[in-house]
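User: I'm curious whether this sequence folds into something compact or stays loose and floppy. Could you predict its structure so I can see for myself?
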Amino acid sequence: MKIGILKDRTAGFYIGIAAAVVALGSAVAYIATDLGDRTFSMPVFVLMLLAAVLIAVNVFWRNPLGLLPSAFCAAAAVGVQIYVSVPTVTDILNKVNFYGGNHTAAVVFPVLFLAAAVLFVAACFMRQYRDPIAVIYGDENVPD
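Assistant: Here's the prediction. I'll summarize afterward.
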């Protein structure tokens, strides 16, 4: 038996929920491993947290474009994290320690954030409801 809010959802909706779980989990891990060095940025944490929280809006506000803000936030977080991680990654590639930073975090977190962003974007292109016309027009106003 499904709850009333979730009764007519499709796989695209659940992929969006999985993306939110990945985003929230990676944001929590990101802030938990923050050592205050240059590979961590507070805007990245806020953007990933915002991407995960905006899914709740999509659950209650039945809008076909409800996942777009989450996808934008996750994509922006990926870009900012890659920007902050580049100096540390160049240290890894050149086998020197010039910039410093957490080498593991510089490689792992952009991959985790990118996975969440790809899931958000994939869910954007999938149906969120079983009958989107009935959602837009209401059940009694569906055109024949």
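Summary: The two ends are 30 Å apart (CA to CA). Residues 68-94 form the longest helix (27 residues).
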